[in-house]
Amino acid sequence: MGNLKDIIYQPMPEHVTVYDKLYAEYDKLHDYFGRGANDVMKRLKAIKKEATK
Fold first, then answer.
1. In a domain? residue 39
2. What is the mean pLDDT of residues 1-10?
3. DSSP 8-state assignment for residue 36
4. How many distinct structural domains can be found in the chain?
5. Residue 47 structural domain
6. H helix count then E strand count, the chain
7. How far is it, in rounded angstroms, from Cα 53 to Cα 51?
8. pTM, whole model, 2 decimals?
9. Share of residues in the chain with pLDDT > 90 (%)
10. Alpha-carbon distance 37 to 27, whole Å?
11. Collapsing DSSP states into helix, strand and coil, what is residue 30?
């Protein structure tokens, strides 16, 4: 958030297959945790809240 640089990173063509696989997994995680498909984060927060009473 401090010094900005005009650097552009380009993917390495030989790694695109791995990048695509990783992105697919991150996308699934986003849907799983971020779109309400699973309320695990709410349950974890409730456990934390209960434990710190």
1. yes
2. 85
3. S
4. 1
5. 13-51
6. 2, 0
7. 6
8. 0.52
9. 34
10. 13
11. helix
**Residue 36 confidence (pLDDT):** 67
Residue 3 to residue 11: CA distance in whole angstroms: 23
Tokens of 24: 């697919």
Per-residue b/e over 31-53, b at no fewer than 16 CB within 10 Å? eeeeeeeeeeeeeeeeeeeeeee
Q: What is the pLDDT of residue 42?
A: 82
Round to whole Å and give the CA distance between 35 and 33.
Answer: 6
- pLDDT tens figures, 22-51: 999 888 888 777 676 678 778 888 999 999
Residue at 18 is within a domain: yes
Phi (first) and psi of residue 26, to 5 degrees: -60, -40
27 falls within a domain: yes
Residue 22 lies in a domain: yes
